[in-house]
Amino acid sequence: MQVTRATFNDVMVPNYNPAAMVPVRGEGSRVWDQDGREYIDFAGGIAVNVLGHCHPGLVSALTEQGNKLWHLSNVFTNEPALRLAKKLTDATFADKVYFANSGAEANEAALKLARRFALDNFGEQKSEIISFKQGFHGRTFFTVTVGGQPAYSDGFGPKPGDIVHSEYNNLEMLSEFISDKTCAVMMEPMQGEGGIIVPDLSFVEGVRALCDKHNALLIFDEVQSGMGRTGALYEYINLGVTPDILTTAKSLGGGFPIGAMLTTDNVAAALAAGTHGSTYGGNPLACAVAEKALDIINTPDVFEGVKRKEALFREKLHEINDKYRVFTEIRGKGMLLGSALSNDYQGKARDFMVAANEQNLMCLIAGANVVRFAPSLIIPDEDIIEGLTRFERGIASLVAK
């Protein structure tokens, strides 16, 4: 059957507005559409394709597992899930892992765990969750309400209660909100959808201290910042601040859907048998691919490469900005970067994304005022240079209008 972009309008719910071109094949950091046009991919499936498209190691892991065992449900366990869980706990602060299918599901599990832990240990009055404005934690009704962007949660009826939003990087405000009724503080150690905002270290350390003072759990949402994207396996390692619960997804499966919640023995005990579950969580196919992705990523060479590639990105973006003066700053860390638009281009991030796409470059936005780049961690330097050359051409066409 022949399908085109027009088919989308006929058969798909209109909650998305995808690009005019339809990608059909990818290899490394390059993608080809239905007409054979080639694109450089700085979007990475929204920080998912951590090793690019069709990485041979991931293809091999999927093929091998696909010829063995596809699905069991959690009535049984399976070897890929157990191996992946062991490698994740060995590489992090965590003792226990819960597998889900997405970042939103991992965050849903984290929030339910925090509420259950508080109920079991402190009583039902300790149920408040504090998160941060412009935060993003998923699109389930619980996670989208905890996320600090009302545009995503308004319009669906009464929201889950006992959720408070503080200001990111404002420790004084958090100290006024938090109390012994707070069961958890949930935060991204670097805000992604909210604009690629890197927090002050003193803020993150202060959040940890306030949680300790009030017996509240600290949840780090590392769905976007995790799996090597910031030059360490997880950003909490760079910060030197350890959460009680960490969520991971996106890059975890390198393109295959999987999410996970990591926590300690003490906290995990609150999710006793039957308290939470997932039909597909811990699927053998997903866990086999994620195990291979973790094996490839969790190496000093990859982490050092991420830091070098960040420096190259920044150098070239500053060169572009010296010519066109369209950015106020380059934000972010590693292979999660954002170009914040100047006053003359406020609200036009999507225009920049579309202009880049017209020059055969795939990129993202993070809000209305930030162009976001989340490419493969192992993108070749020549693809970075060529991609930013195309980005510059897009900017030139936009500025000329």
UniProtKB/TrEMBL annotation:
Family recorded in the similarity comment: Belongs to the class-III pyridoxal-phosphate-dependent aminotransferase family. ArgD subfamily.
Enzyme class, UniProt record, top EC level: transferase
Protein name, entry field: Acetylornithine aminotransferase
Pfam families, A to Z: Aminotran_3
Keyword Amino-acid biosynthesis: yes
Cofactors that this protein relies on: pyridoxal 5'-phosphate
GO annotations of cellular component type: cytoplasm
Binding site for N(2)-acetyl-L-ornithine: 139, 278
